[in-house]
Amino acid sequence: MISQRAIESFVGLFLLASIIALLTLAFKVSGLTSFFRPAGYDVTAEFDDIGQLKVRSPVKIGGVLVGEISSISLDPTSYKAIVKLHIDSRFKQIPDDSSASILTAGLLGDNYIAINPMYSENYLKNGDQLQDTHSAMILEKLIGQLIYKLGNMNKDSKGSDKPQSTEPPKDANSAELEKIKDVKKPAAHSN
């Protein structure tokens, strides 16, 4: 038979293991898995619109995690977002002419930065800036533009005061055909 003291010890160990597991899970979900920054180098990129990009968002190349966003600030003169990327030291051979795009994980997922390597023989180093950047596509803006265009199409089809032409519109090819028809044919020489 197991003594009361042994049962209490097992329950205590189980409770301690449960607390450690919950803390580990909380740190994984919140992105605070490492208290110390891994060795690497910092690169900056300027974007017109960063969408919902956050500090500690991932930086990926081909879907592989290569770093994270360490800070986001606003340039007071150009009003562009300056994003500082911390790249892991294992990834030292990223060409310096690479482009950076803000993408969304899934349809409504979190934003992250995808680096698309190019062909330069020179590699990014600490303090460099990515010149070719592509801002985030904001779903709300796209929906707004679609609604605006649909509204204008309905207005044009209902309230058009211009008489509709029955002739098809002329394009460049039909204009060229008319020029050819207008050219006079040379008279046949008689022998």
Notable features of this structure?
single chain, 191 residues, alpha/beta, 8-stranded mixed beta sheet, 3 helices, 8 strands, 30% helix
Annotate the secondary structure layout.
Blueprint: H1 4-30, E1 40-47, E2 58-61, E3 64-74, E4 81-88, E5 99-104, E6 111-116, E7 129-130, E8 132-134, H2 139-158, H3 172-182
Parallel strand pairs: 1-7, 2-6, 5-8
Antiparallel strand pairs: 1-4, 2-3, 3-4, 5-6
What number is the mean pLDDT?
81
Low-confidence stretches: none
Structural class: alpha/beta
Radius of gyration: 31 Å
The number of distinct helices, counting runs of at least 4 residues, comes to 3
Helix content: 25-40%
State the end-to-end distance.
Answer: 132 Å
Q: What can be said about the biggest beta sheet?
A: 8 strands, mixed
Shape: flat
Question: What do you see in this structure?
Answer:
The protein is of the alpha/beta class. It has a domain at 40-140. It has helices at 4-30, 139-158, 172-182, and strands spanning 40-47, 58-61, 64-74, 81-88, 99-104, 111-116, 129-130, 132-134. Strands 7-1-4-3-2-6-5-8 form an eight-stranded mixed sheet, with no helix packed on it. The protein is flat. The model has no long low-confidence stretch (mean pLDDT 81).
Provide a brief overview of the structure:
The chain contains 3 helices and 8 strands. The chain is an alpha/beta fold and 191 residues long.
